[in-house]
Write a structure and sequence with these properties.
single chain; 120 residues; mainly alpha; 0% strand
């Protein structure tokens, strides 16, 4: 029961639109700090998922986060520069998918570290 409730809490924390937030920071401030924050927070969440649960909350959370990022991205489609070339060579929707997939790499590394910490 404890692992299920921890898993639900971690999925809820994953529901933040990390990729959209990062893209919005990049677009508004021309800074990459949003991407750094995304990598750090999602890696920490991945560590906690592997340490306390199995990997299923990680998969569900990343899917929800990507879906919510797509939802907020649709609201920005009326901004001319947002989808008109700022994220070249990708459209904003394509960038959400690419960044989400690339963000799985540091999460996987964090899961490996959590497994080693838990087993030692």
């Amino acid at each position: 029961m404890k692992n299920i409730s921890i898993g639900i809490i971690l999925v809820i924390l994953y529901c933040f639109p990390f990729v959209y937030f990062s893209m919005k920071q990049d677009f508004a401030n021309q800074t990459m700090t949003g991407y750094l924050i995304m990598i750090l927070v999602t890696s920490l969440l991945a560590f906690l998922v592997k340490y306390f649960c199995n990997f299923i909350p990680l998969l569900i959370g990343n899917i929800f986060s990507m879906m919510i990022s797509f939802y907020f991205n649709e609201g920005m489609s009326d901004t001319e520069m947002w989808d008109g070339g700022y994220f070249k060579p990708f459209s904003s929707s394509q960038l959400i998918v690419v960044v989400t997939l690339l963000n799985l790499i540091p999460q996987y590394i964090a899961m490996i570290i959590a497994k080693k910490v838990r087993n030692s």
